[in-house]
Structure formats: C-alpha cells, structure tokens
Amino acid sequence: MAGLKGLTEEQRPSKEEVLDSFISGAPLKSNAPGQSTAVFKRVTFSLTEQISEEIDRLSLVPRSFRATRSDVVRAGVAALSAMTEEQIVALLDKVHRE
User: Does the predicted model carry a pTM greater than 0.70?
Assistant: First the structure.
C-alpha cells in the first residue's frame, strides 16, 4: 500500500475498511437507455425436475441473446395472457391433472 508507508500496524486501516471505502466510492449503476426500471419480487415455488429442465432448455432457444429462467416464466405468463379464458382454464386443468 503505497500511501500508507510509515504508519504503524495500529494506524493502518484493515482490509475491510479499505474495501468498504472503495465500494462506497464506486459510482451507482445507472440504467442504460431503454433498460427497464421495473422492481422485481423474488418468489419461490416448486417445480418437478422435468419442468425445471424444460425451462432451462427453453432459455437456450434464443441465439442472439441470453434468456434467463425468469424470462421463460414471464414469456409463459405473457402467452397465457393472450389466450381466452376458456383456453387458460383448459390448459391449467390439463397441467393440474398431470
């Protein structure tokens, strides 16, 4: 540490203090143009191994960008939202019975 030469051990800041100082001086990340400012809520739910693997497979389908597991779930909700109420009920009934 070049700027700390000549200080006794007691006078030197701890590594944690140096890191905290560095982190607190870092600029806050700003949203790039077009980037969402949505606030996300973390939710936990249970999936079978088969469904979890299918979500992973679906997230790899796009080749020009990286889709997350959350993107796949949001796309599924968007697809359901585009259906009629009768279609939604039929699909949810099918999934519920499996």
Answer: no
